[in-house]
Design brief:
The protein has one domain: MFS general substrate transporter like domains (Growth Hormone, Chain: A, Up-down Bundle). The protein is built from 18 helices and no strands. Helix 11 runs antiparallel to helix 15. The longest helix has about 40 residues.
C-alpha cells in the first residue's frame, strides 16, 4: 500500500508563531528527557559500589532500580496524563522535573537500603509527569509525517541521558564516591525546570481539548485501554516496545557490573566506554531510525514499522555476541553496531502511537503505553536479570559469570519484539489511511 500523500496530515496546519518556536521547545523537551534518563540510569553504573557498601544482592539492586521505581512511575503517570489532556502540559512537566531532580540528589544522603529505596521511589513519582505530556506537546507542533523525526530527536534523551549517567557516574563515583554522583546529576535539573517554565510556552492543541469540568479518571482510562485494544497498530507497537524495553532496562542495570565482573574493567573506564557508545552510536541510531521511518513511510506507510523490525532483527545476534565473547575488545566492537541498530525503535514507536490516537486523548494513550511498558519492562526487566544471575551464581555454580548468561538469555527477547513491529506495519497503514479525509 503506497502512500501518495502524508496520511492524516491534510487538516494539520501549524501557525507561523509555533513553527518559529517549535525547534527551541523540542530541544528543551529533549533536555528534560535527558535529565530523566540520567537520573534513572545512573544507578546502573553505581550498582556495584552501592551493592558492596550496603551489602545487597543483585535481586535487591534490581528491585531498587526497577520494580520499586516503576510501580510509582507507571501508576501515577495515568492520572497525570489525564490532567494533561485538559490542563497546561508545560507546567506539569516543570513540577515533575523539579521533583525528580530533588529526589535524585536525596539518594546521595541515604544511609541504608530502605532510605535509598524510598528516594528512588520519589524519583519515580516525579518522572511520572513528563513523557506523556511531552509526546502530546510535540504532536501538536509537528504533523504526522514529521513526527518520527521529531519524536526521534526527543528520544535522544534516552541515549544522551545514559551517556551522561555512565560517564559522570563512573568518574565521580571512583574519585568522590557514589553519593556525590547523585548530587552532581540531580541538582542541574532544578535549573532546567526554571528555564522551561520561563521560556517554553504551551502550544495550542491540534484537536479538541477535554473539558476541565468533566474529569472522570476511571472512565477516561477505560476509554484509553479500549482504544488500544481496538487499534491493532497500537497493540502491536506497545507490545514491541515493551519487550524491547524489557531487555534494555535489564541491560542498563547490569551491563556495567557485567563488564566489571567478567572483564575486570575499572568503573571509570566502563563509564568512558558505555557513555559514548550510548550517546554516539545509540543517538545516531535514534535519529537514523526516525529519518528512515519518515522517508519510507511517505512511500509506503508500512515502512514506518518495518524499519523498526529490521533494526531489532539485525541487532539481536550482535547483542548476543557482546555478552558471550570472552575478549573485552571484541565484545565492545559487537556492541557498537548493536547500539546503533537497536535504537531505531524509539522515534517511530512513539510517533505511530501518537498518530493513530485521537487528538483529545494523546497524553492518556501515551501514559497507558508507558504504564504497560514500565510496569513490565522497567519493573521486571532488571528484576529478571538479577534473579537469574543470583540463581546461576548461587545455585548452579556459575560464579561471577552468572550475570553474563542471564543478560545473554534475556537479550533473545528482541526477536519476539521484532515480530510485533512486523505485525504492526499493515495495521498502522490501514488506520492512518482511515484518518485521512
Amino acid at each position: 500500500m503506497a502512500a501518495t500523500a502524508p496520511a492524516g496530515s491534510a487538516d494539520f496546519v501549524i501557525s507561523p508563531e509555533i513553527k518559529a518556536r517549535r525547534t527551541y521547545a523540542l530541544v528543551i523537551l529533549m533536555l528534560v528527557y535527558t535529565s530523566s534518563h540520567v537520573d534513572r540510569s545512573i544507578v546502573g553504573i553505581l550498582g556495584q559500589p552501592i551493592k558492596l557498601e550496603l551489602g545487597l544482592t543483585d535481586t535487591q539492586l534490581a528491585l531498587m532500580s526497577g520494580l520499586a521505581f516503576a510501580v510509582f512511575y507507571a501508576t501515577l503517570g495515568l492520572p497525570l496524563a489525564i490532567l494533561a489532556d485538559r490542563m497546561n502540559r508545560r507546567n506539569i512537566i516543570v513540577a515533575a522535573l523539579t521533583t525528580w531532580s530533588a529526589m535524585t540528589a536525596l539518594c546521595g544522603l541515604a544511609g541504608n537500603y530502605t532510605q535509598l529505596l524510598l528516594a528512588r521511589i520519589g524519583v519515580g513519582v516525579g518522572e511520572a509527569g513528563s513523557s506523556p505530556q511531552s509526546h502530546s506537546m510535540i504532536s501538536d507542533m509537528y504533523a504526522p509525517h514529521e513526527r518520527s523525526r521529531a519524536l526521534g530527536f526527543y528520544a535522544l534523551g534516552v541515549t544522551f541521558g545514559s551517556m551522561i549517567g555512565y560517564v559522570v557516574g563512573g568518574y565521580v563515583s571512583v574519585y568522590w564516591g557514589w553519593r556525590t554522583a547523585f548530587f552532581v546529576v540531580g541538582l542541574p535539573g532544578i535549573v532546567l525546570a526554571l528555564i522551561m517554565w520561563l521560556t517554553v510556552p504551551e502550544p495550542p492543541r491540534m484537536g479538541p481539548k477535554r473539558a476541565a469540568g468533566t474529569l472522570n479518571i476511571r472512565k477516561e482510562l477505560a476509554e484509553g485501554f479500549r482504544f488500544i485494544g481496538q487499534s491493532r497498530a497500537c497493540f502491536h507497537v506497545i507490545a514491541g516496545i515493551t519487550l524491547t524495553a524489557f531487555v534494555g532496562y535489564g541491560a542498563a542495570s547490569f551491563t556495567a557490573p557485567f563488564l566489571e565482573r567478567s572483564h575486570g574493567i575499572p568503573r571509570d573506564q566502563i563509564g568512558l566506554i558505555l557513555g559514548p557508545v550510548a550517546g554516539l552510536f545509540g543517538g545516531l541510531g535514534v535519529m537514523a531510525g526516525g529519518f528512515m521511518a519518515d522517508w519510507w513511510g511517505r512511500r509506503d506507510l508500512r515502512g514506518t514499522s518495518w524499519i523498526v523490525a529490521l533494526g531489532k532483527l539485525s541487532a539481536a545476534p550482535l547483542v548476543l555476541a557482546f555478552y558471550l565473547t570472552a575478549d573485552a575488545t571484541a565484545a565492545i566492537l559487537f556492541l557498537l553496531p548493536a547500539s546503533f541498530l537497536g535504537a531505531f525503535y524509539l522515534g517511530p514507536s512513539f510517533a505511530m502511537v501518537q498518530s493513530v490516537s485521537p487528538a483529545a486523548m494523546r497524553a492518556t494513550v501515551a501514559a497507558i503505553m508507558l504504564f504497560i511498558l514500565n510496569l513490565i519492562a522497567l519493573g521486571l526487566g532488571p528484576l529478571a536479570v538479577g534473579f537469574v544471575s543470583d540463581r546461576l551464581t548461587q545455585d548452579f555454580g556459575f560464579g561471577q559469570e552468572g550475570l553474563r548468561y542471564a543478560l545473554a538469555g534475556t537479550s533473545l527477547i528482541n526477536i519476539w519484539a521484532a515480530l510485533h513491529f512486523y505485525w504492526a506495519a499493515s495495521a498502522y497503514a490501514s488506520e492512518m489511511k482511515a484518518k485521512t479525509p
